[in-house]
Amino acid sequence: METTVRTVKVGDIFYESWGYDQTNIDFVQVVSISPTGKTVKCQMAGKEHTDGEHIKPSKPFGIVFRLYVRQGYQGATILVGSYPFVQGENVLGGWREGRFYPYEKPLYETPFGMGH
Length: 116
What we know:
The chain is mainly β and 116 residues long. The protein has strands at residues 13-18, 24-33, 39-49, 54-71, 77-87, 90-102, 107-108. The protein is built from no helices and seven strands.
């Protein structure tokens, strides 16, 4: 049985959670979609705190990069591929591999300085 992947729209926000002994969140915002809908171009999005431990995305910044639209667990639309490694709004260099999930509500992130 074939399942349809949810349509991605320009402006949609996705996130990835990663880290060892701490939780880090990276946000991306979709800035354009290929004619086939199989790839999107994104920018990193900044973070702002909603309280001491929860964050939400803020404005996009930096270079534009391509991610692939895929169907994830239970049919969820995810974005996969390489993205620039950043801290705050500073590009640290290098690229990370990621799996981004649709953003819906503020997310927990280890408060700065707590994970080391």
